[in-house]
Amino acid sequence: MPHLLGQLYALTPRALHQLSSPEEFVMPHSVFASVPSIAPRRPLRVAVELTGAGHHPAAARIAGNVPLTGPDYWVDLTAGPDILDLAARPAVVQRIQAADLRDAQQARERIRAEVAAEGRDPNSVTVLVDIEVLIAPDSRSARTELALLDETLGVPHQWSSLTYVGTAEGLGSLLADIRAADVADGVTLLPLALPKVLERIVDGTMPWLERRGLAIASDAVDEALSRFGRIRPARAS
C-alpha cells in the first residue's frame, strides 16, 4: 500500500490549525494495519458539493470568488458502472463526515456490515466521505488563501469533516490513498472557494487520477463548470 498522506497537507479538523507545515503531520501506520495490499476492484468516485461562493463562510467576501448560479448542487464528476443517486431507496450512496481517516474507515465498515445484515451486497452501496478542500498552485499559496478567508471571517473556520489544503496533484494522491486503503469508496469534495477550487479540481486533480487509471471524468464536469459560466479546457490530442 502506498504511504498514506506523505507530504500532503491533509488534516483532521482538530489538527489543521496546530501545524505550521504539511511535513509535520504523520498518520500512524496502525490505522491501516488490516488493509489488504491488492488494488481495489471498485472505481474511485469523486463528487463535489457546490454552495454559494464556497463552503467557507467568508468566501463571498473575497474578491474573485463567484457565487453559484442556482441552488446548492451535488454532482458525481466520475463515470462508473452505476449511477450515484442520493435519493435512491434503498440507499445506494452513503455520505459520511469524519474526524479523521480512522473514523471514516470505521464508518464505512459499519455501513457495509449493516447492508450485509439486511441481505444486500455491501458493494451495492458507495460510501463517500466529505472533504473540505482548498487547493492552489502550491501549498504555501493554499495556506495563505485559507488564512485570508479566516482573517476575513474573524475566527478560524470550524471544519465539518476531513480537510485538505494544498495542491491539485496532492489532492489526487490523497484520494488514491483513501481508496486503496478502503477508507471510503470515494469522496464528496466541498470547495471552500468557488469557482477557482472547482477549476483546479477539474484541471489538475481529475487529470492526475485519469493518467493513473484511477477515475474517468464524466460529462458532469462540464455541467458543474457551466454553473459559473466556465468551460473545460480542450485537451491535447
From TrEMBL:
<protein>
    <recommendedName>
        <fullName>Luciferase-like domain-containing protein</fullName>
    </recommendedName>
</protein>
<dbReference type="InterPro" id="IPR036661">
    <property type="entry name" value="Luciferase-like_sf"/>
</dbReference>
<dbReference type="GO" id="GO:0016705">
    <property type="term" value="F:oxidoreductase activity, acting on paired donors, with incorporation or reduction of molecular oxygen"/>
</dbReference>
<dbReference type="Pfam" id="PF00296">
    <property type="entry name" value="Bac_luciferase"/>
</dbReference>
<dbReference type="InterPro" id="IPR011251">
    <property type="entry name" value="Luciferase-like_dom"/>
</dbReference>
<feature type="domain" description="Luciferase-like">
    <location>
        <begin position="78"/>
        <end position="152"/>
    </location>
</feature>
